[in-house]
Amino acid sequence: MKTNNQELVRVESLTKHFTLGGSFLNKKQEIIRAVENLSFTVYKGETLGIVGESGCGKSTTGRLLLRLMEATSGSVYFEGENVLEYSKEQLRAKRKDFQMIFQDPYASLNPRMTVEELISEPLRTYKVQNRKERLLKLVDAVGIPKDYLTRYPHEFSGGQRQRIGIARSLALNPKFIVADEPVAALDVSIQAQIINLMKDLQDEFDLTYLFIAHDLSVIEYISDRIAVMYLGGIVELTSSERLYEKPLHPYTQALISAIPIPDPTISRDRIKLFGDIPSPMNPPAGCKFHTRCPLAQDICKQAIPELREVEPEHFVACHLVEESLL
Amino acid sequence: MPEVKKPLLEVKSLTTSFRTDRGLVRAVDNVSFTIDHGQILGIVGESGSGKSMTSQSILRLIGSRKSEQVNGEVLFEGQDLLKLQERQMQKIRGKEISLIAQDPMTSLNPVYTVGNQIAEVPMIHEGFSKKNAWSKAIEMIKRVGIPSAEVRAAQYPHEFSGGMRQRGVIAMALAGNPKLLIADEPTTALDVTIQSQILELILDLRNETGAGIMLITHDLGVVAEICDQVAVMYAGKIVEKASVAELFSNPKHPYTQGLLASLPKLGDKTRLTPIPGQPPNLHHLSSGCAFADRCPFVMDKCRSVQPALKKEQTEHQVACHLVNEEGGDENQ
Hints:
heterodimer, A: 326 residues, alpha/beta, Rossmann fold, eight-stranded mixed β-sheet, four-stranded antiparallel β-sheet, B: 332 residues, 13 helices, 12 strands, globular
């Protein structure tokens, strides 16, 4: 692992509730608990992966950290300062330290701007000196040929657009990058190019990543540590080696056993999960996973399991984890 | 076998082209394959490789406009679908051949209950009464593993979760007892734990009904999981075709090799090997092999002459000059 355990971001009891309804036509108010009581640390230089199925709150978490969305409660410490308490001006000044890479390279670039305009926009906004020099360095780093600078986004393929998006987020020399499904929209042969690029840039620019994805093979490959989310909470958090070697939460176990492996000679015992993911509008009491858990017992329906360190650097939120450890 | 049985579906030299402002585009180019009863053929390829266009051409969902042209033969139980009248084709769609599309939300009509949409199939194709069709719908909903079928049948698509909707679409596709099922990225929109449920359901149904299945996907993991045969498409052409076991253990086309090498493997953190360059633009294809610009083994010949899909071993076919030339020596 690249980490020296120097903390860069610390999240404490982060919670986000969305309210639905309450309008003139729809008087009934409902609360969606998108993220609840989330706590974790991101170390300098590491890649922390967040994995989970749709609706588990992984994207919301990323957006809350960068204040692209306001949290309901909790704190996010970036280099010791609580980002959620920043005023607008403070936030604007600090924004250049934390940036985002978006999923859809087609939607995240303004179609009326050339590559040069797109990448130098943040440089102009923050009045960076020697803009042209910086611009050329950036396009070179992400592998976009210099003579493409005057072109528009529609002239590029998906993979090249993602490169432009990455150059844009790197423009201001950020320390921390939230990448929300950066390769999900790309073809398989291009995915590997972008993953390699992100790894190279991490070394070159000293970056710390929060890498959000639903693809377990991708997340295992790129992450140093992985947090598995289910219905707004972390159920397991540990190093990526340990997570795949010995997953302790029944949900992680099922998730890993469900990955389709591109090798027909491997046959595995699949842990079957029945039923669907419950709605975050009306999550089950106790452990949120108990409705689908093959091991669920009475206690799981009553008490919410805490995220506990069950072995060094391995956190699990499950009442029955001691049994899995045996 | 003493008698030569006709395959369920035999596609011969299927070519689909579109006239566009920027010239003629061949989305499907001289594609041939067969599917037998009870067989699952996987068609893999990246976006724009022509895999969905192939299925839509088979079902004649394209080809009616002046700008679209579908040539070749699509023999379904010996009958050429491309020669049928639209009327006759309507009797085949949904009855003999059904389609499971990628996005279950857009393949269900939001203003009808799920039960109604499934019941429509036996009413149209088999002249069932409303009442009988409704009980058939409930039977189908049970069969695809949706609990409390009677209640669910009377609900609308928005009341279903994603995985349940896809089960509903599968129930609808199976209601006519089709002999051929075309599944176009059936699990791409679903989460991985739900994906494995749906794949298992498709396998069970194949075993029960003996239907042939054409499964279109970009996910090599899904192919390895449930397919018998696989065809790899690139720029509208099939570049490699083999049994699943053979393709994964002995990929011959440089594109197939590149695809397999570019996937991250569990437990392996060595640097990934991507395929360099970008997918080709169908508007500007060269006269040679479409993969030439990205191929690590490219030769002069590749840039000028298109390689044909040749029988290399009996069941393993590759369209590559390198493989086809070396083929003889390699197999002793």
